[in-house]
Design brief:
GO terms for molecular function: hydrolase activity, acting on glycosyl bonds. InterPro entries: FL_hydrolase_MqnB, Nucleoside_phosphorylase_d, Nucleoside_phosphorylase_sf. The chain has about 240 residues and is an alpha/beta fold. It has a single domain, classed as Nucleoside phosphorylase domain (Rossmann fold). The strands form two sheets. A five-stranded mixed β-barrel has the order 4-10-9-5-11, surrounded by four helices. A two-stranded antiparallel sheet has the order 6-7. Helix 5 links the parallel strand 9 and strand 10. Helix 1 crosses helix 7, helix 2 packs parallel to helix 6 and helix 4 packs across helix 7. It starts with a strand and ends with a helix. It binds ligand LNDFFVEH. The ligand O=C(O)c1cccc(C(=O)CC[C@H]2O[C@@H](n3cnc4c(=O)[nH]cnc43)[C@H](O)[C@@H]2O)c1 binds next to strand 4, strand 10 and strand 11.
Length: about 240
């Protein structure tokens, strides 16, 4: 069974590929740039696709890849912001739930989530047994990962998100989009984030993207045996 890993940008895809190489996965060679890069070890195959930043690009890229080949699992992976005191810089977060935190409507009484408007869902869960096995193998924090279309840049916004989602561990911009596309194909989604910054006041000088990419590489060096075991039992 094949696994699709979706990142936002090429640097994240490269970090994932470096981890897969550490795990003994090899690429059969150059592939068309618009196609996911394929990595194989024995009968296992993991494809890696940098689909773009934000939920729309992530959903579109995921759906396009899933239309082309049969997958059994999708993973949204990349850097992310960590909520202070929950997910420190350089740590890893595995999503218990992938929640579109700004999908809904603003109102004089505050934010109204899409389900309360009666227009659908704003969250999808990760497979509990798999996410716990992955979290244990990676030494990760398990918690809610919020998908936003605008990265948080103030303490007030961070506090507002935490008040609505007290189990939030991290924030990123693609997970829910990936999961919606995967769910349309009947597939489960994991989200794995390597923490590059704190969710809060915008301070680019405080971002540790290099350390987060190194943590992502380490994660994907450890992840394949867990995925291989799960895919051989589940499918
Ligand atoms: O605020 C800035 O100046 C700034 C500069 C470079 C990049 C950004 C991003 O927001 C990157 C978004 C990109 O990285 C993921 N990511 C990483 N940390 C966060 C976060 O705290 N909140 C949301 N997304 C984050 C995200 O998944 C995107 O792919 C900002």
């Amino acid at each position: 069974m094949r696994v699709l890993v979706v990142t936002a940008v090429a640097a994240e895809a490269d970090a994932v590929a470096a981890g897969l190489a550490h795990a003994g996965y090899a690429s059969p060679g150059a592939q068309p740039p618009e196609r996911p890069a394929r990595f194989r070890r024995g009968g296992h195959s993991i494809d890696v696709l940098p689909a773009g930043v934000g939920p729309a690009a992530a959903a579109a890229g995921t759906a396009k890849a899933l239309a082309r080949a049969p997958y059994g699992l999708v993973v949204s992976a990349g850097i992310g912001g960590g909520f202070p005191g929950v997910a420190p810089l350089g740590s890893l977060v595995v999503a218990s739930e992938l929640i579109a935190a700004d999908l809904g409507a603003d109102s004089p009484d505050g934010f109204v989530p899409l389900p309360e408007l009666g227009f659908g869902r704003d969250r999808l869960g990760a497979p509990p047994a798999l996410r716990e096995d992955v979290s244990r193998a990676l030494g990760a924090v398990t918690g809610v990962v919020l998908t936003v279309t605008t990265a948080t840049g103030t303490a007030g916004r961070a506090a507002e998100l935490l008040a609505r989602h007290p189990s939030a561990a991290a924030e990123a911009m693609e997970g829910f989009g990936v999961a919606e596309a995967a769910d349309q194909y009947g597939l489960p989604t994991l989200e794995i984030r390597a923490i590059s910054n704190e969710v809060g006041p915008r301070d680019r000088s405080a971002w540790r993207i290099g350390d987060a990419l190194a943590a992502l590489t380490d994660a994907f060096g450890k992840l394949p045996p867990v995925l291989e075991s799960w895919t051989s039992h589940e499918h």
